[in-house]
């Protein structure tokens, strides 16, 4: 189990991110999805866990991780335990685990899970093909989490469509994620919502130079 570093969230999760589950972190742009993933990575590094980080957007920033590590007094040499795969197309994303044995890692991150599928299958007549391809990928990801007993965290974008917030490929991703963490902005700052079959809780948070903190 890996703590998120947010007291309320860890409490709602029953201690932290559990092995054998796919956890999604979704939210609109600039709500801190990657920042929260970085914080979870740092908590995993406290226990010297090996991490596979799949970057599909090019937004992985090691300098931000180093900044957080310095402020949290974590040895920067532990960065060597994070293997970063820069994924540039869905074929690479789908085939990644045929080339990289997942059992080599104690935590797998995919940031972001749907971007490349939406980009490559952008035409309306490709909608069915997109969902089928994405669901096959998610089924494989879920199977890896369950059978290898590895916690897998994926991030996903939320957009406003017709005045309603919708997670990208929401119906398809929801079939294969066990726990959802939704980040959003409101008049009071930032709001974190945990959604699972057993709990639906909300609390406010802030983002600082050292990472996520609960808002008092």
Q: How many strand units? A: 10
> Largest sheet, described in full?
10 strands, mixed
Helix content: 25-40%
Average pLDDT confidence is 91
Q: Which oligomerization state do the chains in this entry correspond to?
A: single chain
Secondary-structure class: alpha/beta
Strand content: 25-35%
Shape: globular
- Provide the gyration radius in Å: 17 Å
Q: Secondary-structure element order, as H and E?
A: HEHEHEHEHHEEHEEEE
Spatial gap, N to C terminus: 25 Å
Q: Helix tally?
A: 7
Low-confidence stretches: none
Which structural traits does this protein have?
single chain; 216 residues; alpha/beta; ten-stranded mixed β-sheet; 10 strands
Provide a compact summary of the structure:
By secondary structure, this protein is an alpha/beta fold. The chain has helices at 7-12, 33-45, 62-71, 90-99, 115-120, 127-148, 170-174, and strands at residues 22-27, 51-55, 82-86, 107-111, 152-161, 164-167, 179-186, 189-195, 200-208, 211-214.
